[in-house]
Write a structure and sequence with these properties.
The structure holds two protein chains of two kinds. Chain A is mainly β. Chain A is 0% helix and 53% strand. In chain A, a hairpin with a 2-residue loop joins strand 6 and strand 7. By secondary structure, chain B is mainly β. Chain B is globular, with a radius of gyration of 13 Å. The interface between A and B is medium-sized, with 27 and 29 residues.
Chain lengths: 116, 115
């Protein structure tokens, strides 16, 4: 079983739809949760970052973390064709020595297409 | 503009040849990473370096080698021992221990194809 599971899709939605992207994980030590967006043939870029449990909103994007269920979500409201990309969840723990900073564990990525 | 530069963007290799992918950053970051991306598998960590002259194996280091002689540079060599080298390679950096989140900054990637 992979440490982080993400439905690869592909997911195709009409413009204006609400999109829900999800990841589950098995390592209870994970504390930092991120969503990266990757356009075709480009490197990923950080979209949202959340520490521990809770919600975070940034414009049309909302990230949710439920540590009790080991489940994170990214919601996109009023989706646009420019949101078409691969979305990768990523998470990291923090060991006593702090040496795991930046050692992220990624999900497989979900390919999203928003059509006009 | 600060960022990470990877070169070449596309590379073709014959079987049995070693190739080196370049990664340079001007973000003054301590930590640098190499990931491999294959369809349906997300990003897998090959090697990482938290400081100059030190690096650690990631989850799939076999058939790869790296060096970290300068803070700005972290080249990756794909050797002939790597059984399935065709992939998209991503270099990243982070502020390392100085970071509060471990956020990674990625380059635009190098696509390697073995003929």
């Amino acid at each position: 079983q992979k440490e982080v599971e993400q439905d690869p899709g592909p997911l195709s939605v009409p413009e204006g739809a609400i999109v829900s992207l999800n990841c589950t994980y098995s390592n209870s030590a994970f504390q930092y949760f991120m969503w990266y967006r990757q356009y075709s043939r480009k490197g990923p870029e950080l979209l949202m970052y959340t520490y521990s449990s809770g919600n975070k909103e940034d414009g049309r994007f909302t990230a949710q973390v439920d540590k009790s269920s080991k489940y994170i979500s990214l919601f996109i409201r009023d989706s646009q064709p420019s949101d078409s990309a691969t979305y990768l969840c990523a998470m990291s723990d923090r060991n006593a020595g702090g040496t795991s900073y930046g050692k992220l564990t990624f999900g497989q990525g979900t390919i999203l297409t928003v059509h006009p | 503009d600060g960022g990470i530069t990877q070169s070449p963007k596309y590379l073709f290799r014959k079987e049995g040849q070693n190739v080196t992918l370049s990664c340079e950053q001007n973000l003054n970051h301590d930590a640098m990473y190499w990931y491999r991306q294959d369809p349906g598998q997300g990003l897998r960590l090959i090697y990482y370096s938290q400081i100059v002259n030190d690096f650690q194996k990631g989850d799939i280091a076999e058939g790869y080698s790296v060096s970290r002689e300068k803070k700005e540079s972290f080249p990756l060599t794909v050797t002939s021992a790597q059984k399935n080298p065709t992939a998209f390679y991503l270099c990243a950096s982070s502020a390392g221990l100085a970071a509060s989140t471990g956020e990674l900054f990625f380059g635009e990637g190098s696509r390697l194809t073995v003929l």
